[in-house]
Design goal:
Nucleotidyltransferase, domain 5; flat; 2 domains
């Protein structure tokens, strides 16, 4: 008993949103301390880590032959175990002192429907990076808790979490997920759709970082009150020389329409499979949107129009899942049912 009390006092609890696009860390004492891209730059010959996070993302599309940039998570799960472990280790070392009496306890959010093998990969990566006890929470549940929804009550709550690799819809009641749908169309797919559209329509090639910036600045699903436009520079596919084109919000609506339809389709399928009592609750309470993809202009209005639901975006959608994961970590007894391992 004394050892457990001592461990709670001296150990550092960490909540982690291990995302395809970004990794966020929260500590009990400091709050959100890390919010950086899930990117690692490696030496091609030695496989040594040269940069992690924001510094590594700056390398993307600009590296010489002896350096490569890696995104170790794809569609919400670990694609490269060693690089993921190195990335977690880097972030943990960045926020914790070198001298530690006890190994930190981790609570990590993961996609719904994650396999046992994928669960083990996440737990092993965190353990090898210095974690003691590791608990897992599903991302939509984390989003619901982060948005302060009554997840433990016998009430239907619907959440749409649009991350980097996946968009996940979940119906939550009594501390569990009653219905879920997941599509591998989210922020990354939108970036590639913008990149592909600019290549096909304007005949210029742009990097994925440029495509992401275009999406963030003028990307939209429905017409906006003030039409947006942006000058975009890239490489002419015919002449090979640099060229600047004017991309408009209308172009972006065309580029992103397929992704929006796919995400909305997941919401409709989840509603179709939801029991009637929970569906009635959802019609009354509405749909919560979280994740970076929910910031796409007009996406909430588009889903509201297609589903006839009240749709609202969390006040800080980029951190909703992490805030919920941290709350589950801090109030373990209250949210005991949400842990999936």
């Amino acid at each position: 008993m004394f050892l457990q009390t001592l461990r709670r006092f001296f150990s550092q609890d960490i909540a982690m949103d291990l995302g395809t696009a970004n990794t966020l860390l929260y500590t009990r004492k400091q709050g959100i301390v890390i919010n950086e891209p899930s990117v690692v730059a490696l030496d091609v010959a030695t496989k040594g880590v040269l940069a992690v996070g924001q510094n590594a993302k700056r390398y993307m599309g600009r590296t010489p032959k002896n350096i490569t940039t890696v995104r170790p998570l794809r569609e919400g799960v670990i694609a490269d175990f060693d690089v993921t472990r190195a990335m977690i280790d880097y972030f943990v070392r960045k926020i914790l002192s070198k001298v530690r009496l006890f190994r930190p306890s981790f609570v990590i959010c993961v996609p719904t429907g994650i396999t046992q093998v994928e669960k083990k990969a996440v737990i092993d990566s965190a353990t090898m990076a210095g974690a003691g006890n590791v608990k897992l929470v599903e991302e939509p549940m984390g989003a619901a808790i982060g948005a302060d929804l009554p997840v433990n009550d016998p009430i239907g709550n619907m959440v749409l979490d649009i991350g980097g690799g996946t968009s996940e819809v979940a119906v939550i009641s009594l501390g569990g997920i009653a219905e879920t749908q997941s599509v591998r169309v989210a922020g990354d797919a939108m970036n590639m759709a913008v990149q592909r559209y600019i290549r096909e329509v304007f005949r210029i090639e742009v990097g994925i970082n440029t495509a992401e910036n275009v999406k963030k600045i003028i990307g939209a699903v429905t017409p906006q009150e003030k039409p947006l436009a942006l000058e975009v520079s890239g490489k002419d596919l015919v002449q090979g020389a640099p060229r600047i084109v004017m991309v408009t919000e209308g172009h972006m609506r065309e580029a992103l329409s397929s992704a929006a339809k796919c995400i909305c389709g997941a919401v409709l399928r989840a509603l179709e499979n939801t029991p009637p009592e929970l569906a009635a609750d959802i019609f009354k309470n509405g749909l919560l949107m979280a994740g970076g993809g929910s910031l796409l202009k007009g996406l909430d209005a588009y889903i509201a129009r297609e589903t006839h639901l009240k749709v609202y975006v969390d006040e800080d959608p980029l951190t909703t899942v992490l805030r919920g994961t941290a709350r589950a970590m801090l109030e373990r007894e209250r949210y005991r049912s949400v842990f999936i391992n």
